[in-house]
Amino acid sequence: MTESVNKSRWDDPETVRILLENRARALARPPVEAAKADTVAVLEVLVARERYGIEAQSVEYVDTLPSVTPLPTAPSPWAGLVNLRGSLRPVIDLRSRLGLGDGAAPENRALIVVAATGGQVALIADEITGINQVAPESIGPPLASDAVAGSIALGVTDDLLTLIDIEELIAPAGSTAPAGGGSKE
Questions:
Q1: Measured between alpha carbons, how far is residue 81 from residues 33, 71, 72, 74 in Å?
Q2: CB of 156 closer than 8 Å to CB of 139
Q3: Dihedral of CA 32/34/39/41: which sign?
Q4: How far is residue 181's CA from residue 115's CA, in Å, rounded to a whole number?
Q5: Quick check: 108 and 94 in contact, CB under 8 A?
Q6: Which of helix, strand or coil describes residue 148?
Q7: Which one, of 81, 41, 67, 101, lies nearest residue 180 by Cα?
Q8: Which residues of 133-151 are buried (b: 16+ CB within 10 A; e: fewer)?
Q9: Hey, where are the domains in the chain?
């Protein structure tokens, strides 16, 4: 009996027209925004068990860490160069740049390619944990105890996520950047 009721419902042109009109109205409505307009999307990463956030709009893409070609004359935060999609990119190891030491790093580290003023730069993080929405009013001043990260931190959220200023992260090491990061694609 259910089959005959369903079949007769679809056989009635007026019922079909009403259903299609209702669906068209529902699809024509503007989408409900998942996040408030006053929040910022942030890519959350782990570096030596510390949580850091990078503004998502500066992130070009993420990948697993391929082999990095070390440059013997490159200063400490620069890990070397990596060939990504046919282009060489300079690589900064966030552990080194943030002063978190070279302790036991995870085997499968993540690579984050960010757009900076001088071009694309790749960052090495221990893990990518996700994308969060951060409200500007939840950001406080950087922690005073974190001298190295404090100079590149935009601030710290209520849940202790340290937000990184990409331009400041790259700037001190930027003057001696290895070749390959000068052009943004």
A1: 39, 7, 11, 10
A2: yes
A3: negative
A4: 10
A5: no
A6: helix
A7: 81
A8: ebeeeebeebeeebeebee
A9: 1-32, 40-174
Helix 13-28 to helix 2-11 angle (10° resolution) is 80
| Residue in the block written with tokens 């730069």 | 121
**Residue listed under structure tokens 């893990």:** 127
Instruction: List the pLDDT tens digit at each of the 185 positions of the chain.
Output: 444 444 555 677 888 888 888 888 888 877 655 545 688 999 999 998 899 999 999 999 998 888 899 988 888 788 899 998 888 999 999 988 888 876 667 778 899 999 988 789 999 999 999 999 999 898 988 876 665 556 788 889 988 899 999 998 887 554 444 545 544 44
Q: What is the CATH number of domain 40-174?
A: 2.40.50.180
